[in-house]
Amino acid sequence: MTTARRDTYTPETLLSVAVQVFNQRGYDGTSMEHLSRAAGISKSSIYHHVSGKEDLLRRAVSRALDGLFAILEEPGAREGRPVDILEHVVRRMVEVLISELPYVTLLLRVRGNTATERWALERRRDFDHRVAELLKAAAADGDVRADVEMRLVTRLVFGMINSIVEWYRPDARGATGREVADAVVRLVFSGLRGD
Amino acid sequence: MTTARRDTYTPETLLSVAVQVFNQRGYDGTSMEHLSRAAGISKSSIYHHVSGKEDLLRRAVSRALDGLFAILEEPGAREGRPVDILEHVVRRMVEVLISELPYVTLLLRVRGNTATERWALERRRDFDHRVAELLKAAAADGDVRADVEMRLVTRLVFGMINSIVEWYRPDARGATGREVADAVVRLVFSGLRGD
User: Fold this and answer.
1) CATH ID of B60-190, from 3.40.190.10, 3.10.290.10, 3.40.50.800, 1.10.357.10
2) For residue range B83-93, what is the model confidence (pLDDT) as tens digits?
3) What is the ipTM score, two decimals?
4) Helices (H) and strands (E) in chain B, counts
5) Is A194's CB within 8 Å of B152's CB?
6) What is the pLDDT of residue B3?
7) How high is the pLDDT of residue B73?
């Protein structure tokens, strides 16, 4: 005998369950049945909150994307030399990635099979482009080294930051978001050999 | 009517077909039937060359692992200060990753569901450990910055290097392995702001 849990979900709390299932099974591999089992409520209860699986995906990746785009509106991203703005943005990207870990993880795994996924990829590309523009402006100022191609640098820096979702686990003994952000900023801007 | 291609494979050429299929479908999602179709020869012809799917996986990840471990035997990895050895190893890791791209891609996606996968993960951990030891030795010499935790640095540098498999495509207009290796070494050791 199974007892259905009483539906005390809001769209937000339902979202956190859905994101976990999406990250475990992959979005394509997740059915409404899987979501219903993980949440412990019926499919029709889920439809009471959201219009379906793609609606949940849209809300989840929006949370990640809104967190990333909000960085560009912060004072530290609006004033100063491009290289310093870039440093602020890199630091905050790491912090947002860690504070919104499951949502950003999902965003980074989006494939492009549905309209929502293609929309998310498009917004991700917009964000990456904004960061690449900052890097170009810093290079034009002579504030970053000129002996590495900027497209390569963008790829490598995003590669380093995005790889954090593969190993970072929030846990009392591990590094905090701030410590990881410090490490990334020091490594990316000053390198291992130091200032 | 289908015409079976004449079996002119060697274990090595069969391997390159298998690795492509593994990378596309995932190792778990690949059957001997998929391999037989991709190679255009019968399953029994495949069994003539190798003992099965797991044998192909073992050969493929061995090729990647042997390439990585061979770096540690190179003269540049055996003499000099640890920080310079580390720089040599990082450069060569990028070059090997790019010259053996499909094999390293497969290695990085191994999950651990079979004995062969667990063996591959174990050897990968050995390799990562050897690199982490070099970093520690360089830190003990005072040759790398002391204000970032070495475990974090190891994760981030491997994250940057391993992310290359996600975007690097060998193509006449793109960066060569050497250019990507130069960019990684400059970024990791001297940082964006330059020497």
Assistant:
1) 1.10.357.10
2) 999 999 999 99
3) 0.91
4) 9, 0
5) no
6) 54
7) 98
For B160, the closest of A148, A163, A166 (CB atoms) is A163
Range(s) of chain B covered by CATH 1.10.357.10:
60-190
Q: What is the largest CA-CA distance in chain A?
A: 69
Taking an 8 Å cut-off on Cβ atoms, the answer to whether B163 and A180 are in contact is no
Per-residue tens of pLDDT for chain B, all 195 residues: 455 566 788 888 899 999 999 999 999 999 999 999 999 999 999 999 999 999 999 999 999 999 999 999 999 999 999 999 999 999 999 999 999 999 999 999 998 889 999 999 999 999 999 999 999 999 999 999 989 999 999 999 999 999 999 999 988 778 899 999 999 999 999 999 876
CB pair distance less than 8 Å for B153 and A180: no
B160: Cβ–Cβ under 8 A, 6 or more apart, which residues? A156, A157, A159, A160, A163, B184, B187, B188
CATH among 3.40.50.1100, 3.30.200.20, 1.10.357.10, 1.20.58.100 for A61-190: 1.10.357.10
∠ at Cα B63 (B167, B173), nearest 5°?
Answer: 30
Binding-face residues of B in 83-142 toward A, CB within 8 A: 83, 138
CATH topology of domain A11-50: Arc Repressor Mutant, subunit A (1.10.10)
Query: In chain B, what residues touch A143 (CB-CB under 8 Å)?
Result: 193
Query: Which two three-digit tokens encode residue A63?
Result: 């949370």
Reported confidence tier of residue A194, pLDDT bands at 50, 70, 90: confident
Q: Is the CB of residue B61 less than 8 Å from the CB of residue B120?
A: yes
Question: Is B148–A182 a contact, with Cβ atoms under 8 angstroms apart?
Answer: yes
Q: Is residue B89 a contact partner of residue B131, using CB atoms and an 8 Å limit?
A: yes
What is the rounded distance in angstroms from the CA atom of residue B74 to the CA atom of residue A18?
49
The CATH 1.10.10.60 domain(s) of chain B lie at 11-50
With tokens 């339902």, the residue in question is A14
